[in-house]
Amino acid sequence: MDRITEEQIGRLVKFVYARISGADSLREEEARRTTTALRLTVDKQVAAVRYYRASPPESAAVSEVHATASWNLLVAIAQIWRDHSEFPIDSAIETFEFDAENPLMPAS
After folding, report:
1. Contact, 45 vs 71, CB < 8 A?
2. Are the beta carbons of 67 and 1 closer than 8 angstroms?
3. CB 3.0–4.6 Å: which of 2, 33, 85, 99 could bond 107 by disulfide?
4. 7 pLDDT exceeds 60?
5. Contact 17, 42 (CB under 8 A)
6. How far is CA 74 from CA 81, 94, 99, in A?
């Protein structure tokens, strides 16, 4: 997470929010609910990343795994629109892979 800059976080978050901002204009209830769920998911991932970034050093290690997972999920959501001309390729980088047998630990 330390190699991801605040600028990269901001660009990726702005890009994703811009893609899902049209929920209010959708007419079908199903589409509105799906977009609302996506927005809620993104909000929670952004909050976890921001929480980690603001954590004091003594508690940062505990929140780093959650922040990393949240960032990786946010990147995956952004990649839905990877063909978009404004896709922030330099921001949409994953932090690391997870070990399949122990998903709370980084792959070695």
Report:
1. yes
2. yes
3. 99
4. yes
5. yes
6. 12, 9, 19
> For 27-66, how does the pLDDT look when each residue is reduced to its tens digit (9 = 90+)?
787 788 888 888 889 999 999 888 888 888 777 777 777 7
Buried b or exposed e, range 41-54, using 16+ CB within 10 angstroms: ebeebbebbeebee
pTM, two decimals, is 0.71
Q: Which pLDDT score is estimated for 102?
A: 62
Q: Which residues contact 82 (CB under 8 A, 6 or more apart)?
A: 92
**DSSP letter string, 2-70:** TTS-HHHHHHHHHHHHHHHGGGGG--SHHHHHHHHHHHHHHHHHHHHHHHHHHS-HHHHHHHHHHHHHH
Torsion of CA 60, 64, 70, 71, to 10 degrees: 100
